[in-house]
């Protein structure tokens, strides 16, 4: 059983594979956890995302959403977090390799970042819309 691909790429001697007692699916979970903790250390925007998401989820509990709307809310939350993680990874790659990247590649990275921003904003606005419709249904305003 191998360790993660990242550990294999960083070993001194590529012919000698490090061994681990973890199964591949468990190693993938460990690598994912490492990635999330690195993202928390790299950027403070993930803290804001978790704060905003917790406020939205508390509001969703108060307005008693149906099961289907909860599914949409969770899908949007997952899209927000995945988009933020992808954005931070692309940003880190661009910063570390800025000297070797051409101007055209940097323009493509800006387009990718814009697409991720649209994804995050669209998911956030979808959650706000779902909550707003439910609040209007309850005649709170």
Topology:
Elements: H1 5-10, H2 24-42, H3 45-62, H4 67-96, H5 103-137
Outline:
The chain is built from 5 helices and no strands. It has helices spanning about 5-10, 25-40, 45-60, 65-95, 105-135.
Distance between the termini: 59 Å
Largest sheet: none
Q: Could you spell the SSE succession in H and E letters?
A: HHHHH
**Helix proportion:** over 70%
Radius of gyration: 20 Å
- Count the strands? 0
Mean pLDDT: 84
Strand content: under 5%
Which segments are poorly predicted (pLDDT under 50) over 5 or more consecutive residues? Answer: none
Written overview of the protein:
The mean pLDDT is 84. This protein has two domains: 42 residues, no CATH class; 98 residues. The protein is mainly α and 141 residues long. The longest helix is centred in the C-terminal third of the chain and has 35 residues. Helix 4 packs antiparallel against helix 5. The relative contact order is 0.10.
List its salient traits.
2 domains; 141 residues; globular; kinase activity; DAGK; 0% strand; DAGK_sf; mainly alpha
